[in-house]
Design a protein that fits this description.
The protein has helices spanning 13-17, 30-38, 40-43, 57-65, 90-96, 102-105, 119-137, 148-158, and strands at residues 4-8, 48-53, 72-73, 141-146, 175-182, 185-193. The chain has 195 residues and is α/β, with parallel strands linked by helices. The longest helix is centred in the middle third of the chain and has 19 residues, at 119-137. The protein is globular and about 50 Å long. The two termini are 25 Å apart. The relative contact order is 0.23. The mean pLDDT is 97.
Length: 195
């Protein structure tokens, strides 16, 4: 069975400031582009059974700069819909909701078309992605290029944890992480790897 490689997109202006970014399609910063390019040696020389990316520009650009030609956009790899917390930092949210926790509380509805998502809803999307790549993993490694919170939930689900278990896996911009198996069980083999 192949490994599941998780690539978090490079830095954006809002990843620097800590603003929740789901549907706002910010470009990579210059540093973010350099981060993406630096991932190429970690991914080169390998044949991948499948390469999927979030449809958002920061993820597709990261895939391109990292040398992942032919990546297929998958809408289920979209970042958590932060609803009314789009563009807002956790520090700002805590001013009015000091006990708020994304992983257990979810988010309030946002503008039309952005109702927000609960942890369970993000977990359901992660489960769909994992089901779709299961056959490809039988033929080799699979790469997913996406976003921090979504990939953290996907990791939790791959390991058999509830979606809120994603809180245990901090994920930096411009990194590669690898989920593998040991004795037939999913494990974290590498995390937040940079060249």
């Amino acid at each position: 069975m192949g490994d599941l490689l998780l690539v978090r997109h490079g830095e954006t202006e809002w990843s620097v400031t800590g603003q929740h970014t789901s549907w706002t399609d910010l470009p990579l910063t210059g540093h973010g582009e350099e981060q993406a390019k630096s991932l190429a040696p970690l991914l080169s020389g390998r044949a991948f059974a499948s390469v999927l990316t979030s449809p958002l520009g920061r993820a597709t650009r990261t895939a391109e700069l990292a040398g992942l030609a032919g990546a297929t956009p998958d809408p289920d790899l979209h970042e958590w819909d932060y609803g009314g917390y789009e563009g807002v930092t956790t520090r700002e949210i805590h001013r009015t909701r000091p006990d708020w926790n994304l992983w257990t509380d979810g988010v309030p509805p946002g503008t039309e078309g952005h109702p927000g998502e609960s942890p369970a809803e993000v977990g359901a999307r992660a489960d769909r992605v994992l089901a779709r790549v299961a056959d490809a993993l039988g033929g080799g490694d699979v790469v997913l290029v996406a976003h921090a919170h979504f990939l953290r939930v996907l990791t939790a689900r791959r390991l058999g944890l509830p979606p809120a278990g994603g809180a245990l896996f901090q994920l930096a911009t411009g990194t590669v992480s690898r989920l593998s198996t040991e004795h037939g069980r999913p494990v974290v083999a590498e995390w937040n790897t940079r060249p």
